[in-house]
Structure formats: C-alpha cells, structure tokens
Amino acid sequence: MHYHPVAWALVTLCAASASAQESYKIEPLKEAAPAELSGAIKGQLSAQGYRVVDGQGAAYAEFWLRKSVPAAGKPAGAKGTVLFPVLAEGELLGALRFPGKRGIE
Hints:
Elements: H1 5-17, E1 25-29, H2 39-42, E2 49-53, E3 59-65, E4 94-97
Antiparallel strand pairs: 1-2, 2-3, 3-4
C-alpha cells in the first residue's frame, strides 16, 4: 500500500507530541471529511482520509489530504530554511481533526 509523503510527516508530528513509550500507526479512513468544513474546502480534499491510532487502537488524529497542490514555481530544492519553496504561503494541504476529548496526561 502506498501512502502520501505528507501523511507520513503528519504521523511523525503526531507521534512526536505524544509519549515516547506509546506506539502509533496509520490506517486508511473510509469516511468523508468533516461536515463542518465548507463545501469549497471539502471539494479539494481526497475522498479517503487517514487515521492515526495509539497502541490501544484509540483514534488520535484523522486527516484528509488535498487531491493536488498547485506549485508556485519549479522545484529546485530547499532554499535556506524553506524546505518546500514551491508552496505558496497559506496553501491548503489538507484538513486535520483530533476526535474525542483529550486531557493533559
């Protein structure tokens, strides 16, 4: 199964913010993007999302990636601290949801 590189980046970020002793995994999510999103945004997102689950199988985060991201220029590699210079500032990459109630552990 092939996963989008941005999906792996989000999993890494989610896992880094959690306990180092817990293990997380990513699984496909068959439900549509949240109804709270505007139609304009939902129309740009892929039908399939991804869910990050913790070691007990509880959902930690859910995300839907954009179908395609328009480039603001030709890819030429990193420029200083900017790793993706072809992305415009504020570009929509996807939607992220943290389901359930989470307290400080």
